[in-house]
């Protein structure tokens, strides 16, 4: 089995040393966790392991011998495979074809489908994935797509598996399944590199942790180390409280959802959110949390029921009027739904207010620029200047822009869908402080999240959805992970509303 | 200079001026190319850099530039309009027809022409927004429909135009009206794109349609408006073409859509949307006209001109793509 070592490697881009003298050794049958905030250099380290980048200083050893990994193909020959955060899949092609992408088995120049099918089935069996190999990849959920990627890596005899934030888009149950597979791979002697922003997962699957900060090697410690120690190493200071929720006295009802129903997605959902309150919306992926939030915002229509903000009933599926009534949405995926990545920070901040503030068809460019600058400053967005492309900022700062967009629009009700997905610990606390600020100013927040500790830590009240229905609710003080999970699965056996 | 830069041997103090020049050059590739081309042509032949020839280049560039200004809206919004040549033809044909065969007053015929452009554009836009037809397909269909209708109305024969229409192709006090029209339309396009909310929405929708929609920007309205504007600009270009020929020709402006698209793309716009400037488009259109004019003066056959134009487009766009790649690292 293979042992992979990076010895004092550095990588320089222009004037910046993004990785500076980092040493990591991935041992067979061990899970090596790479920990660090966004921009700490984890991705660059992975790219050096997988042949995408060459180290500018230091060297790479495989089984004690110094090697060069000039490209991805060479890495594969060394048995190194990467499961990227953004999966490399062709959604239109079948599982089988994706498994053999770039290496189709042929017979006399024609694709040998029989051999392909047999090998594909064997590969899926190996990781316990029960799925027809002819199913188009795009019909699978993220978790299953990931399983297929792992199966593909194993099929190519990978002995070092690099998992770049594999759990970011998975539910708890799916994560657990992934961890079981990782344990089986460990038993088979596969060495793994694991990246995750969820600290609780580190002790669960990790053996050792290497912490990076600002491209520098900080320490390698046992994965069973307490979370507070990991956070301290990662951010270089103590973070007193991961969830600094400051509760307010709830005021009048700001958001009232009444018997909201959409066939196949939302089943008679009613609840209220008061001024000063953060209501957490928990549930498994596919339980209908995103659907409820999008229906409230007007991004999708609904069959019956109503949504009212501050006593005023909102029209169905009319985003512009919903925003005018004082509602904002921080969507599930900021990169595809929240931001124009190539546009500047300023333009993104002004996105929701550009049309409403225009007069006689002319945009209020001067006023907008002033407000954009103020908002960027107020939210402490870390950037060179407001003309920088939003896509070049870290996940946390990108998310702050999305929050800033709604702060500029002066919304009373903010809908959050996975507000800290892909955001590192330090920036996460800053996002939470933004949430506190909104409620302190009399706003109401509805927050859907798959991150249960976050829901419990930042909400005042927790609502749980299961299979399109509201299966229960409780004050956050009384909520536990067990209580929430049992509510989340309570309607699971009823009909086929929930999919994969 | 930070410690990091010092360690790497970077000397930010001395290179700033040079860096600025380099930066400007890499961001204005088309302009630099145009200047170099003009210098080369001035050296190669004394016939190039003369007043009359410059005006000639301007007139040659005018119709394509006007079409390209309209096209810029569409490309910024991440669409494409293949119908501009045909729409220019059909609207100018309607101007001539309503004037010559129906005896309508010239001013009314011109309004009808502009309205025709708007209506054809609106149809493409509606198909794009509500039938979810990709702009390429909607306008490919419209290209055929509009050209076909031009032939139907004219019965395949040119129709002569009124004096008021011919004014758009005339020269007044030594100044060719096509150039004046190009400048007016360029300024209008620039104002729309930079200062109006609909213009800013084009950049937003072209950059990320879903994020724009979820920010309350009316994506449908924007999609329809870009094609309407493109149609109106095409109609104005049609007036200029008819004015120069004193008649509406059934095959007028055929193939011009490609020159218009090329101008926009040479000018730095991205076909994936969200990027593009009227000034860039203007330079693109002038560059194409200068190449044609220069090759004509140098007696290069028009067959070879097509080869050269094709290579210029490929070179200009790959230069731009490479620059962006370098910029992101």
From TrEMBL, chain A:
Its EC number is 3.6.3.17. Pfam families: ABC_tran (PF00005). One of its GO terms (molecular function) is ATP binding. Residues 4-239, 249-492 form the ABC transporter domain. Its main location: membrane. CDD domains: ABC_Carb_Monos_I, ABC_Carb_Monos_II. It is a peripheral membrane protein. SMART domains: AAA. It comes from the Bacteria. Gene3D superfamilies: P-loop containing nucleotide triphosphate hydrolases. This is Monosaccharide-transporting ATPase. It comes from Bifidobacterium stellenboschense.
From TrEMBL, chain B:
GO terms for cellular component: plasma membrane. The keyword Ribonucleoprotein does not apply. Pfam families: BPD_transp_2. GO terms for molecular function: transmembrane transporter activity. The chain crosses the membrane at residues 30-50, 57-76, 82-100, 107-127, 133-153, 165-193, 224-242, 278-297, 303-322. Keywords: Cell membrane, Membrane, Transmembrane, Transmembrane helix. CDD domains: TM_PBP1_transp_AraH_like (cd06579). It is found in: Cell membrane. Its main location: membrane. It comes from the Bacteria. It is a multi-pass membrane protein. This is Inner-membrane translocator. It comes from Bifidobacterium stellenboschense.
């Amino acid at each position: 089995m293979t042992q992979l070592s990076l010895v004092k490697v550095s990588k320089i881009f222009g004037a910046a040393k993004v990785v500076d003298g980092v040493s990591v050794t991935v041992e067979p049958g061990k899970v090596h966790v790479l920990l660090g905030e966004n921009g700490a250099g984890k991705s660059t380290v992975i790219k050096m392991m997988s042949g995408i980048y060459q180290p500018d200083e230091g060297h790479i050893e495989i089984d004690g011998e110094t090697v060069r990994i000039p490209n991805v193909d060479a890495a594969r020959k060394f048995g190194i495979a990467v499961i990227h955060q953004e999966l490399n899949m062709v959604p239109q092609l079948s599982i089988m074809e994706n498994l053999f992408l770039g290496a189709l088995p042929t017979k006399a120049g024609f694709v040998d489908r029989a051999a392909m099918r047999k090998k594909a089935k064997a590969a899926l069996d190996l990781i316990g994935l029960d799925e027809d190999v002819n199913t188009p990849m795009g019909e699978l959920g993220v978790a299953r797509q990931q399983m297929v990627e792992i199966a593909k890596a194993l099929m190519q005899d990978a002995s070092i598996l690099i998992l770049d934030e594999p759990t970011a888009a998975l539910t708890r149950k799916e994560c657990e399944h992934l961890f079981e597979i990782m344990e089986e791979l460990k038993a088979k002697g596969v060495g793994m590199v694991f990246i995750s922003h969820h600290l609780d997962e580190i002790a669960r699957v990790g053996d050792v942790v290497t912490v990076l900060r600002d491209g520098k090697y900080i320490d390698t410690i046992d994965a069973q180390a307490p979370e507070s120690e990991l956070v301290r190493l990662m951010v270089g200071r103590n973070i007193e409280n991961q969830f600094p929720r400051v509760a307010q006295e709830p005021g009048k009802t700001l958001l009232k959802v009444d018997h909201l129903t959409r066939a196949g997605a939302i089943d008679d959902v009613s609840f209220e959110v008061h001024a000063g309150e953060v209501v957490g919306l928990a549930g498994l992926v596919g339980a209908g949390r995103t659907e409820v939030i999008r229906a409230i915002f007007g991004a999708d229509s609904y069959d019956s029921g109503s949504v009212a903000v501050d006593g005023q009933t909102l029209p169905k599926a009319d985003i512009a009027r919903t925003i005018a009534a004082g509602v904002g949405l921080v969507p599930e995926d900021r990169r595809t739904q929240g931001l124009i990545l190539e546009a500047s920070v300023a333009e993104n901040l002004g996105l929701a207010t550009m049309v409403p503030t225009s007069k006689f068809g002319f945009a209020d460019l001067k006023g907008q620029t002033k407000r954009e600058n103020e908002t960027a400053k107020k939210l402490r967005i870390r950037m060179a200047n407001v003309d920088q492309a939003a896509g070049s900022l870290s996940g946390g700062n990108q998310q702050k822009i999305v929050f800033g967009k709604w702060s500029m629009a002066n919304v009373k009700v903010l809908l959050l869908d996975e507000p800290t997905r892909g955001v590192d610990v330090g920036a996460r606390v800053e996002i939470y402080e933004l949430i506190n600020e909104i409620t302190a100013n009399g706003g109401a927040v509805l927050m859907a999240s798959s991150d249960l500790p976050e829901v419990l830590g930042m909400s005042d009240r927790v609502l749980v959805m299961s299979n399109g229905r509201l299966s229960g609710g409780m004050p956050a003080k009384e909520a536990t992970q067990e209580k929430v999970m049992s509510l989340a699965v309570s309607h699971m056996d009823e009909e086929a509303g929930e999919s994969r | 200079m930070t410690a990091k830069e010092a360690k790497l041997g970077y000397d930010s103090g001395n290179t700033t001026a040079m860096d600025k020049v380099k930066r400007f050059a890499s961001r204005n590739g088309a302009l630099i190319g145009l200047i170099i081309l003009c210098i080369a042509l001035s050296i190669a032949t004394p016939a190039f850099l003369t007043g009359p020839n410059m005006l000639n280049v301007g007139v040659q560039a005018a119709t394509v530039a006007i079409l390209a200004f309209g096209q810029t809206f569409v490309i910024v919004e991440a669409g494409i309009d293949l119908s501009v040549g045909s729409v220019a033809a059909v609207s100018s044909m309607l101007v001539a027809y309503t004037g010559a065969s129906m005896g309508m007053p010239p001013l009314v015929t011109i309004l009808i022409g502009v309205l025709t452009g708007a209506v054809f554009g609106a149809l493409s836009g509606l198909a794009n927004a509500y039938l979810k037809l990709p702009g390429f397909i909607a306008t490919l269909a419209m290209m055929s429909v509009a050209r076909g209708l031009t032939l139907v109305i004219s019965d395949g024969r040119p129709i002569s135009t009124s004096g008021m229409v011919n004014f758009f192709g005339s020269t007044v006090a030594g100044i060719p009206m096509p150039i004046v029209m190009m400048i007016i339309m360029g300024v209008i396009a620039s104002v729309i794109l930079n200062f109006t909310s609909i213009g800013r929405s084009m950049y937003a929708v072209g950059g990320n349609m879903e994020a724009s929609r979820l920010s309350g920007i009316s994506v449908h309205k924007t999609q329809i408006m870009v094609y309407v504007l493109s149609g109106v600009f095409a109609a104005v270009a049609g007036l200029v073409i008819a004015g120069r020929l004193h008649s509406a020709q059934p095959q007028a402006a055929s193939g011009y859509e490609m020159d218009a698209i090329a101008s926009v793309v040479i000018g730095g716009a991205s076909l994936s949307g969200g990027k593009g400037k009227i000034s860039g488009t203007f330079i693109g259109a002038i560059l194409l006209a200068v190449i044609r004019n220069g090759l004509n003066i140098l007696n290069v056959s028009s067959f070879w001109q097509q080869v050269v134009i094709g290579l210029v487009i490929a070179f200009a766009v790959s230069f731009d793509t490479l620059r962006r790649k370098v910029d992101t690292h």
